[in-house]
Design a protein that fits this description.
Belongs to the LysR transcriptional regulatory family. This is LysR family transcriptional regulator. GO terms for molecular function: DNA-binding transcription factor activity; transcription cis-regulatory region binding. It comes from Leifsonia tongyongensis. InterPro entries: LysR_HTH_N (IPR000847), LysR_subst-bd (IPR005119), WH-like_DNA-bd_sf (IPR036388), WH_DNA-bd_sf (IPR036390). It is a single chain. 33% of the residues are buried. Helix 1 packs across helix 2. The radius of gyration is 28 Å and the shape is elongated. Strands 3, 4, 5, 6, 9, 10 and 11 form a 7-stranded mixed sheet that branches. It has a two-stranded antiparallel sheet with strand order 1-2. Strands 7-8 form a two-stranded parallel sheet. The protein is α/β, with parallel strands linked by helices. The two termini are 48 Å apart. It has 3 domains: 84 residues, Winged helix-like DNA-binding domain superfamily/Winged helix DNA-binding domain (Arc Repressor Mutant, subunit A, Orthogonal Bundle), CATH 1.10.10; 95 residues, D-Maltodextrin-Binding Protein, domain 2; 107 residues, D-Maltodextrin-Binding Protein, domain 2, CATH 3.40.190. It has 12 helices and 11 strands.
Length: 305
Amino acid sequence: MQAEIDLESLRLLVRVAAVGALSAVAREAGVSQQAVSSRMAALESHLGVRLLDRTPRGTRLTDEGVLVAEWAAPLLAEADRFASVTRALRATSETHIRIAASMTIAEHLAPGWLVALRAAQPSVRIELVAANSATVAELIRAGSADLGFIETPEIPDDLEQVTFATDELVIVVGSSHPWARRRSGVTVGELAATALIARERGSGTRLAFEQAVASAGHTPAEPAIELSTTTAIRSTAASGAAPAVLSILAVRDQLTDGSLVKVRLRDLRIVRPLVAVWRPDIPPRSPAAAALMTLVRSGLPRPPG
């Protein structure tokens, strides 16, 4: 079986292509020119291709050498990324990460992430603050949190961001509410005219709902009840007081046990982005932050249940 290619030799070849001289590459690498030349000769032997033209006036890449260097560059970039991520996941030194997350993410996604993060880095210390999306953005701006996770359609343009998933909002009612038996569903006009149980202003859930209704040409009624927690909204909706708008993540168990019923919307679907944010001048480069972002981008894990 052919031995694996030496990535460091490929890295030296890419640098030779960039700077054009073995001596300059040797100085960069802190080794002798002879050592670089020997690595190049070994790489040529391994590949069975002449990579360099050596003349009294200097050394230049052959056409084949240029191609190999071009192909090697993205391979080396991926290798560096892989090494960085695995270092983050395997880091054992004491680390500390401060996270701010909007309510739906804090209650239904973050627990699974944090369990996995602790499994990968047992010594990591984690602080999690749950707040609405507007407050999360303020905590990031103030430097009070390293990473923020928000669920609003209005992404702050002064923060770095990456969308890692989408979330659907649904209308739910208690089993005794008239809409629970409405097989024909509810129109967006009827929904807009109905006073709902809603989150407070600054909540990404409320903003996403209001923008979706407005984009359909309607002005949503003022809420019948404003509550600041998902648990309170679920309980109040289950009592039959009024319909509520919540993330599908927040009502899966209640839809299964029948304490809440999902109302069919005939002409509207409400989807919002789930976004990680951080300050441009404080990127999430710590081992814990890098490991957390790896978990978040993978889409796994979610808490059981």
